[in-house]
Structures are given as C-alpha cells and as structure tokens.
C-alpha cells in the first residue's frame, strides 16, 4: 500500500502549528479575557497558564507522535492505546464536524474582513468563502511542498502583522488611555478566571496539528516533539506581547469595552490606516490558519481509509503529487456545504469541548502505552512523566465536566455527534471483516 513521502522539516512542522494556532482569535479574544478579569496581572497570568496547559498536552502528544509517526495523528494514537473504535470516533468527529466547521467558519471570517474594502451581497459572500476553501484545497492537492510553502509564507506574514501592532502599541502610543466603563460579567472571580482560561485555550488550539502529518515529517522522532514545543514557545511569546501592547494602548478597561480590540488599538496608534491594516492582518491570519487545517486534517479520513474503516478510495494517493487528493476534496466539499448553509456556527459550539475529550484520552494514552507496551520505540519521552500527562488529563476532565455542568444541552449534543459514529464504525468493521 503506497504511503505519503516524508518531505517536511523542522521549520515546516513548526510553521504548521504556529500558523494554525494564530488565527482570528488573537485579534478578538484579548478583549473578552480583559472583560472577565479587569486587571493587567490576571489577564497576563491567564495567557501564561493557557500556554502552560497547552505545553503539558503537547509534551504528551509529542511522545505519541514520535513513537507513531503516521498520518492521522490521534486516529492512530487512540486506536493503539485503547481500541480501533476510539481512533475511529476521533477521525469521524474530526472529519464530519470539527474540521469542516472550523474551515467554514474561517472562510466566512475571511470574507467578513474583505468586506472592509468592498461590498457584496450575502450570496456573493458565500461564493467567495467557498472559493477560498477551493483555492487552498487545490494548492494542497498539488503537493506537500506547495502546501508547506504556502503555510510558511502566510505564517511569517501574520507574525509580522502582529509585531507591527506590538511595536505601534508599545512604542508609538503617545498618551495614557482614557478611563472606560465596562460591565463586568456576573460570578465569582474564580468562575470568571475559568471562563477566561477556556477562551485562551481556544486561542492556543492547534498545537497538535503537525501530528496529522506525522507520516510526512523527516526524522519524526526529533522533529515532531521539537516542532510542537517550539511552536508553543513562539505563540506564547507573541500572545503576551500582543496583550502587553493592547494594555498600553487601550488599558484593560478599554480592552474590555471593545468588540474589536486589535482594530481599536491600531486606530489609536496608526489612525484610520490602522483599521485597514488590521483587516488585512485578519484576512492573512484566517487564510493561514485555514491552510494549516486543510493541509493537515484531511489525513484523518485518509488514515481511516488506510485502516479499512472508511471508503477505500478515500485512502488513495495521487501518483504525481503524492497527496491524499480524494480525502482533501471530500473535506473541502463538506466544508463548502457548511459555509453555504451556515450550519457551522452551532456545530463549532457543540464540539469545542469534544476536542478536549480526545486530547485528554490521548494524554492518558501515554500512561496506558507505557504500561502495556514498555518496549515500544520512544525516540522522545514526555518530560516530567508521569506528572505532566496526569496534570493535563486532570485539566481535561475539569474542562469537560465544567462544560457539562454549565452547558448540558450543548455537551449532550456534542457527545451525541460523537456517538453517531458508533453504528458507522460497526458497519465498517463488518465490511472490513467480510
């Protein structure tokens, strides 16, 4: 059975993660975090802790990625640690709900900021969104190098945009921000801190993206762990600098009162040109994140097909371009349907917590596999084992449990979406054995 070639180096792998993590959230989320906490110290602390939690998960995922450098990431890890059904359910949820909803949402966000420069009717907006999905899907079908180069360029551009905002805020903010009144949400400080933490974790999501393409990374035992950790170090630094610049420019109260915090800060330091600059920045950022998702996540249905739990032709590799073209087209088509119908909004809400169900299970899988398969080759071993994976598993349980308590309907629907994969798995298992 043909396999995908290993062509991605350390820089490519790092840019995949950085580019997927830094999306539209960094332009919006700091205002929401400030609204919950209303003081500089806890705002910066929650961003640091969000990064630390992500690092804990990354350390565990890095061991799995180095030990099993195959396409599909958690599809492979969960199947190996527990049972094929858990790998399937992750691949099912990722392909059917999580990834296409994310792709559609980012495409629509791109179009909404394009609207800063031109006007178009709702149908045209949807056509442009679908066009952006088709463009990025097409680029990534043309070869791993084409997708990786696009990712590298867009990621560097978005980092440069953010650094301009940081320099403008820290250096050219000429006066102290005026006092602004903001209505602080109800609840104890602890509950508001927890909500702020969840928002921050959403902004950090994407730190495991490179594991989807683990089968295409050169020297995976070294490059997968290094890229995961290095990408988080970069993103934590960028996020802290951005928040510091926003505080200097707007103050925490001003951030809390803003619905477009990065745009307001840019206008304060660069005038009316600042708003256009941020609009371009968000467009570049959303395209970069979408390219990263499209580039990597089609490997989930590809991995399922390779293992006999999906349509066999979805595991095909293009003879010339050496990419899983069929899986990519399937993913792009489904995401386009969501963008056209607008169904991604609620889906994204329902399945956000489901990601941490699988993240927690993967981290626990490190503990399971250390016991069940002690002789498995492990080019990288989780730093701080067993404390670090246990801490991440505990946090994942807290996050999932808190979601069930705070939003039981959304949690039930999310779990129901995962559960829909059970009869599908039974069907494919029957086909596979027959």
Task: Please give a structural write-up.
The protein is mainly α and 434 residues long. It has a single domain (10-433), classed as Amino acid/polyamine transporter I (Up-down Bundle), CATH 1.20.1740. The chain has 17 helices and no strands. The chain has helices at 10-21, 25-37, 40-67, 74-81, 84-114, 122-141, 144-171, 189-204, 220-257, 261-270, 272-297, 299-306, 325-341, 344-372, 387-406, 408-419, 421-433. α14 (344-372) runs antiparallel to α15 and α14 packs across α16 (408-419). The longest helix is centred in the middle third of the chain and has 38 residues, at 220-257. The model has no long low-confidence stretch (mean pLDDT 88).
Per CATH, the architecture is Up-down Bundle
Our count of helices gives 17
The shape, in one word, is globular
What is the N-to-C succession of helices and strands? HHHHHHHHHHHHHHHHH
Short description:
By secondary structure, the protein is mainly α. It contains 17 helices and no strands. It is globular and about 70 Å long.
Which key terms come to mind for this protein?
Amino acid/polyamine transporter I, 76% helix, 17 helices, 434 residues, mainly alpha, 0% strand, globular
Task: Reconstruct the topology from this structure.
Layout (H helix, E strand, L loop, with lengths): L9 H12 L3 H13 L2 H28 L6 H8 L2 H31 L7 H20 L2 H28 L17 H16 L15 H38 L3 H10 L1 H26 L1 H8 L18 H17 L2 H29 L14 H20 L1 H12 L1 H13 L1
Helix pairs in contact: 1-7, 1-9, 1-11, 2-3, 2-8, 2-9, 3-8, 3-9, 3-14, 3-15, 4-5, 4-14, 5-6, 5-11, 5-12, 5-13, 5-14, 6-7, 6-11, 6-13, 7-9, 7-11, 9-10, 10-11, 14-15, 14-16, 15-16
């Amino acid at each position: 059975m043909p396999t995908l070639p290993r062509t991605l180096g350390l820089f490519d792998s790092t840019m995949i993660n950085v580019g997927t993590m830094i999306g539209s959230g960094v332009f919006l989320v700091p205002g929401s975090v400030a609204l919950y906490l209303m003081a500089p110290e806890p705002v910066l602390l929650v961003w640091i802790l969000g990064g630390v939690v992500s690092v804990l998960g990354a350390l565990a995922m890095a061991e799995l990625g180095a030990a099993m450098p195959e396409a599909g990431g958690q599809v492979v890890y969960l199947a190996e640690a527990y049972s094929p059904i858990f790998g399937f359910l992750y691949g099912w949820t990722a392909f059917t709900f999580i990834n296409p909803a994310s792709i559609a949402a980012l495409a629509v966000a791109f179009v909404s900021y394009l609207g800063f420069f031109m006007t178009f009717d709702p149908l045209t907006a949807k056509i442009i969104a679908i066009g952006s999905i088709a463009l990025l899907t097409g680029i990534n079908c043309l070869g791993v190098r084409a997708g990786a180069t696009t990712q590298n360029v867009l990621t560097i551009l978005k980092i440069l945009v953010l650094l301009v905002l940081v320099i403008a805020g820290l250096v050219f903010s000429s006066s102290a921000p005026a006092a602004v009144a903001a209505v602080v949400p109800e609840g104890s400080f602890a509950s508001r801190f927890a909500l702020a933490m969840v928002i921050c974790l959403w902004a950090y999501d994407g730190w495991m993206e490179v594991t989807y393409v683990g089968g295409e990374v050169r020297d995976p035992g070294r490059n997968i762990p290094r890229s995961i950790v290095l990408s988080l170090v970069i993103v934590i630094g960028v996020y802290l600098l951005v928040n510091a610049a926003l505080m200097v420019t707007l103050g925490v109260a001003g951030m809390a009162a803003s619905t477009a915090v990065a745009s307001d800060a840019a206008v304060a330091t660069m005038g009316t040109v600042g708003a256009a600059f941020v609009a371009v920045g968000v467009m570049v950022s959303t395209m970069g994140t979408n390219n990263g998702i499209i580039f990597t996540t089609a490997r989930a249905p590809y991995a399922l097909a390779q293992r006999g739990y999906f349509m066999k032709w979805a595991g095909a590799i293009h003879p010339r371009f050496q990419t899983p073209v069929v899986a990519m087209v399937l993913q792009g088509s489904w995401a386009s349907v969501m963008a056209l119908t607008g169904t991604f909004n609620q889906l994204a809400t329902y399945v956000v917590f489901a990601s941490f169900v699988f993240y927690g299970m993967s981290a626990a899988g490190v503990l399971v596999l250390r016991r069940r398969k002690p002789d498995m080759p492990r080019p990288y071993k989780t730093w701080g084992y067993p404390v670090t994976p246990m801490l991440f598993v505990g946090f994942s349980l807290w996050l999932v449990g808190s979601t069930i308590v705070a939003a039981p309907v959304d949690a039930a629907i999310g779990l129901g979406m995962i559960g829909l994969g059970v009869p599908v798995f039974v069907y494919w298992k029957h086909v596979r054995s027959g």
